[in-house]
Amino acid sequence: MEALDGNAIAGLLHDVFDAEMTSATGVCGSCGASRQVAELVVYVRAPGTVARCRSCGSVLIVVAEVRGIKCVDLSGLASLEPPTAASDVD
Amino acid sequence: MARAAVRGRLSWQIASVDAVAEETPRVRTIVLEVPAWLGHRAGQHLDVRLTAADGYRAERSYSIASAPDEPVAITVERLEDGEVSPYLTEELRVGDALELRGPVGGYFVWGPEDRSPLLLVAGGSGIVPLRAILRHRRRSGADVPVRLLYSSRSLEDVIYRAELDELADGVEVIQTLTREQPPGWTGYTRRVDAELLGEVAWPVDENPLAFVCGPTSFVETVADGLVGLGYPAVRVKTERFGPTGGR
Q1: Do B6 and A90 touch (CB under 8 A)?
Q2: B2 pLDDT exceeds 60?
Q3: Which end of chain A has fewer CB atoms within 10 angstroms, the N or the C?
């Protein structure tokens, strides 16, 4: 299965967070790498959607939908900083 | 007021098809009328959702092909085993309804306030968001110099061919046809690699901003190549797509 990137889940994340998240900055809880969500390695056809760290491969974000309810696991992230308001209309 | 509206929840809505245009035998542009469209930025995308009679749903994300001040359009490449693209490229007719949400994304976007020389690198239908950027640049009167490096398999596969041929005013188009070239072809004929990027890319000391869009392996090669040339990683914006990613 080919990996995409965080751009591919812009709509999904916007739906979950009610905000534009691809330009948010995520810090990997395993290796400390800091990257914008758009740059994460994303698999959209895993059981659920999985975003991994581009530096070390750790799982950072998992979104699974169960009976219409989206379950979001961010436990792989040390932090997730939204984009600054000034730079984004969203 | 407008800002409050933009902050509203992203919701699915019904658009209607205003026009369709065949770009290549496998690629079609669909112009949409979206009743509650709040405007978009060049490089953003939208999600399309198809619902089958039995309730099965398939969603795909497509780059917006038009400038912010133009009607919303997407350009879709037909994937033979796709769930969504065959319908969009073969079945959908003018006047049909289409369920979508957007715009989404805020990373792979460009606006005329950025004064850096632009390096745009596209593989195949990766040209779509870059076309929105090119149109936005022209329509906003921006004069930042642009180099577009576009890789296609053959001349027949070049999307927006006539439009690209007419680009001028500070836009340099460099094409490579990797599988088949017409007689007399004077452009490149090889895959984009570090060496080709070295010939085409703006020098690092001009502080260029790069947008790279294409299949995953293409984007990896280009992004690594640009960083190898000294481009800071933060100056290389990337967007990858694959069989499941749409565009």
Answers
A1: yes
A2: no
A3: N
Report if residue B112 sits inside a domain: no
User: Which residue among A4, A14, A22 places its CB closest to the CB of B107?
Assistant: A22
Task: Output the pLDDT for position A46.
Answer: 76
| A chain contacts of residue B244, beta-carbon cutoff 8 Å | 2, 4, 44-45
Domain ranges of chain A: 4-83
Name the residue range of residue B89's domain: 2-104
HSE-CB at A62 with a 13 A cutoff on CA atoms is 11
Confirm whether B109 is domain-assigned: no
Nearest to B106 among A3, A5, A23 (CB): A23
* Residue B114 forms contact with A (CB below 8 Å): no
Does B136 share its domain with B96?
no
The answer to whether residues B76 and B159 belong to one domain is no
Please state whether beta strands B73-77 and B27-33 pair in parallel, antiparallel, or not at all (unpaired): antiparallel
Are B88 and B152 members of one domain? no
B242 close contact with A: CB closer than 8 A: yes
pLDDT tens digits for range B57-116:
999 999 999 999 999 999 999 998 899 999 999 999 999 999 999 999 999 999 999 999
B99–A contact, CB cutoff 8 A = no
Asked if residue B46 and residue B92 are part of one domain, the reply reads: yes
| Range A38-62 average pLDDT | 95
ipTM: 0.89
Query: Which of B10-25 are b and which e, b meaning 16 or more Cβ less than 10 Å from the residue's Cβ?
Result: beeeebebeebeebbe
Q: Which residues of B32-58 are buried (b: 16+ CB within 10 A; e: fewer)?
A: bebeebeebbbbbbbbbebeeeeeeee
Is residue B32 within 8 Å of residue B18, measured between CB atoms? yes
Residues B136 and B226 in one domain: yes
Chain A neighbors of B216, CB-CB under 8 A: 2-5
Chain A residues with beta carbon closer than 8 angstroms to that of B102: 11
In this predicted structure, the answer to whether residue B127 has a pLDDT above a threshold of 60 is: yes
Do B31 and B135 lie in one domain? The reply is no
Residue A20 has pLDDT above 70, yes or no: yes
Q: Model confidence over B181-238: pLDDT tens digits?
A: 999 999 999 999 999 999 999 999 999 999 999 999 999 999 999 999 999 999 999 9
Q: Is position B110 within any domain?
A: no
Inter-chain residue contact B104 with A20, CB threshold 8 Å: yes
Q: How close does chain B come to A75, measured CA to CA in Å?
A: 23
Number of domains in chain B: 2
CA atoms of B104 and A14, how far apart (whole Å): 7
Closest B-chain CA to A34:
B234
